[in-house]
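May I ask you to comment on the folded chain given beneath this request?
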Amino acid sequence: MMDVHDYSDVLPGNLLRVWTPTASCARRVGGVLMGGTAVAVHLRRRVSEDLEVMTLRSFSGSAVEEQLRETVNSVEPIEVSDSMFHRFVDGVKVDVFRALPTNGVAPEQMRWICPGTRISGMEIGSIPDLMASNSTESCIERSYGTTSTLPNWTVPADAASKLAWVTIAGGLATTIHRRYSSGLSGYSRAQARCRPTLTTKHAASLP
């Protein structure tokens, strides 16, 4: 199993200390780490200081709080409700939440696009699943900027020049859609948001 301490270049010490208890709660509710910290783990380009765990099923926010209080020093209130836990845990902002309905698709009808990577007991959202999340594009843009060169692993070399006009998020989305969508059964409308928004002219110019 991969060790979260190997990512200390992008994950500060206080976040590392609450990683294991948060991972235990994530497993209990079927949650996957999403948002900026998941992006930081994949891209290794920026420090991230909070934990956002998303699940597709209902859970009790109070039960998550009770479990965390057994293993951490402090849990400071922000918001706790059905399918929502939003608090500071030993000074680290921790969000555990259920996915919202999207394009008429309820969370229970959704599924994860690809398996994630498990690090010290926490499942990290895959790049395709991160790109299908509304909150992830801004995280990627903060990491690379809209005019930066696309990371080598996102786009085939012969496509890089033709994708120069695409944002980092758009470039990732283009590649992800090509790499993963054709082999997926039950590819839902909600997950199809990872497809890039391109004009017909631009799409026709792509290899």
In short: Residues 143-168, 183-207 have pLDDT under 50 and may be disordered.
